Amino acid sequence: MSNNTSPIIISTGVSRRRFIYTGALGLSAVALRAHAASKPRLVSPNSKVNCAAIAAGGKGATDIAGLYDGGANNVVALCDVDKNTLDAALQKYPGAKGYQDYREMLEKEKDIDAVNVSTPDHHHYPATMLAMQRGIATYTQKPLTHTIWEARQLAITAKKLGVVTQMGNQGHSGDGNRTLCEHIWSGTIGDVKEVHCWTNRPIWPQGISRPQGNDPVPDYLDWDVWLGPAPMRPFVGPKEDAAPGKDGKKKKAGRGPYHPFNWRGIWDFGAGALGDMGCHVMDGACWALHLSNPVSVEVVESSPLNRESAPEWAILRYEFPERAGHDGKKLPPCTLYWHDGKKTPPRPAEMEAAKFAESGTLYIGSKGKMFTDTYGERPRLLPESKSKELPKPKQMIDRVPDNNPYKDFIRGVKGGPTPCSNFAVAGPFTEVVLLGNLALLVGKKVMWDAKNMKSPNCPEAARFVKKEYRTGWKV
Which of 121, 60, 313, 46 has its CA nearest to residue 198? Predict the structure, then answer.
């Protein structure tokens, strides 16, 4: 297994502050079931990694291929609620066994070393927790969880059990975010007290009411398992076009409101634009500026809010207190703004480009301003023409081979350095991201007590910090 004193941990995002934070979590760890005390599975550097996937289409297909190419080249089991998707994946990996319920797969398959979780957000926690409890190394897509409480519990359990973990925010493995950190830590733009993150998401329906209807469930889809821990609701599929096609038959128009993609904007299943892109776009700022445990988050502006789905667009403001930096010195309080739905920050006077990129981050320092792209790529000064004169900062952070998060994970599975976006990093970071959704759900400013996961001014937020699970899905 990985060595928790390896320099790679310190240099890839786990600051002393976060070690202390994560250590404190252990005092409130959830009790694990008796059978769950499995030791982490050990894989020697020269052995095959027996890999499995929970969700085999879309991003799941990309992730299992990435893990396969990254060294997990023995796919032993695949799971997907959609039998059509599952059958297609089994053709690509013919040696794997197929399942539609990951609870069954994890119970029956005893030789899984590593698993990828690329389900809708509401399944991330139960699938990941069940895998970790069996000693299985787990690569879980962003956002790590659906709720703040879940993120805290996964960080606790990963530390307690010693399993290898990684969240799928690939920019954390990249050179861009590392170079950004090194610029910020070297004082290239001075003290940073204001940051703006933005994205063009959502590119799916948001700001909608509950989909109406009660359609027959297709025979290839296990709707009960698709809902999983979420409250029961009827299946609604794609609607027929009003006019028949050239063949005289009516056809289904596009995708339905849930499966396989449009769930992202619906609160019961997804975490909206912020959950989808926040763990990418906000990563550089949280890493470079050591932003964790904000004292408050609030909605500055948004389209109408409702309890069924995330808004069409929103602008949020996070307030972070004074805190220790990478070298232990105090950093000033910092305000971070989140803009989604194609909303962008005020245009800096030094900006030369005609328009903002689709997603990115703007850092406003006492000595200058800096842009990065979606995943932290291309850190550059404003005006951008000035960046040609910008010397490369001294390297302070170890690099990941080929900037590849899958290789980073698999080398950890084989006893190498701890993966850089392990849950000690990804858990607290996900809590920060999801706090924005908490403000959207309650519709007012949320003061935040991170230690106790409570809002002193907004007790009604508790129901969104920790949710109820449908019978059969509580882990």
Answer: 313
